[in-house]
Amino acid sequence: MSGIELLQNPAYDPNNLLDSLIDTLRLRNDAALARVLEVAPPVISKIRHRKLPIGASILIRMHEVTELSIKDLRILMGDRRPKFRISTEQFKPKKEELAN
Q: What integer pLDDT is reported at residue 2 of this predicted model?
């Protein structure tokens, strides 16, 4: 699932994840969360308004500061896939590249 597909998925709820992090870390607001995660406040705003998907690097940072597992963080944001894997097709050269 790409970032765009994730943003359009009705089960995806970044607000639930962000609100849970604020509660878990006993923070006051999104600006405090941004400081703890070491990201610019507009990043949190864009995630909250579904303009930016939660990427791997911020997910890892969330794990580091909360000690919640990546699986638990993904569940909080509505990602119910059992595994997140990259397709082996992505590593194969395209047919056009083979012809050259």
A: 60
